[in-house]
Amino acid sequence: MRMALLGGSLRPESLNTRLLGHLETELEARGHEVSAFTGAALRLPLYEDGVAPSAEAQALHAALHAAQGLLIVSPEYNAGIPGHLKNVVDWLSTMGPSPWQGLPVLLCAASPGAFGGARGLVAWRATLANMGALAYPGAITVPHADQQLDARGVPTDPRTAAAVPKTLDGFLALAARLRS
Ligand code: FNR
């Protein structure tokens, strides 16, 4: 399948970008075609009514349209969606036709905190539902990620490590049923 990945922070050392890299590797190992958007690709101008979308926003729009599924790997800022990612979502929701309608989405997060960014994913679910995207009921979260994510983005806690392929494969099976 064609899969898109979107996420991480604008920090070069982003834990979420590192986790995204591991998930990209896992998807490629399963034979999927992957388009990943991180770092500078997410640095869009602040959404403004009447302003034309940038080339970067158009590239994201095209990739989400072509994708049969999307992985969002999001930091949690103040129990919500970080501004740079919400800005991406807002741009893409104003560029017709909507790439979100019926798009299967797997939510993922990494945080140094004990909840692994899970509270931010609650906010993501409300936003995705508003746009008609289909958020998978499960999620991948990595708590204590400053200590429990290795240099390749692989969780070092055995339970978290075991949950990653299980959740990913469950999501991929659902995306295949919905979009193949
Ligand atoms: C945070 N962080 C944070 N962590 C968390 O678990 N819950 C939270 O509500 C917040 N809130 C928050 C707000 C702001 C403005 C910042 C800058 C940070 C900490 C955050 O999880 C941590 O910085 C991660 O390392 C950010 O992800 P990246 O940049 O490593 O991908």
TrEMBL record:
<dbReference type="InterPro" id="IPR029039">
    <property type="entry name" value="Flavoprotein-like_sf"/>
</dbReference>
<protein>
    <submittedName>
        <fullName>FMN reductase</fullName>
    </submittedName>
</protein>
<dbReference type="InterPro" id="IPR005025">
    <property type="entry name" value="FMN_Rdtase-like_dom"/>
</dbReference>
<feature type="domain" description="NADPH-dependent FMN reductase-like">
    <location>
        <begin position="1"/>
        <end position="145"/>
    </location>
</feature>
<dbReference type="InterPro" id="IPR050712">
    <property type="entry name" value="NAD(P)H-dep_reductase"/>
</dbReference>
<dbReference type="Pfam" id="PF03358">
    <property type="entry name" value="FMN_red"/>
</dbReference>
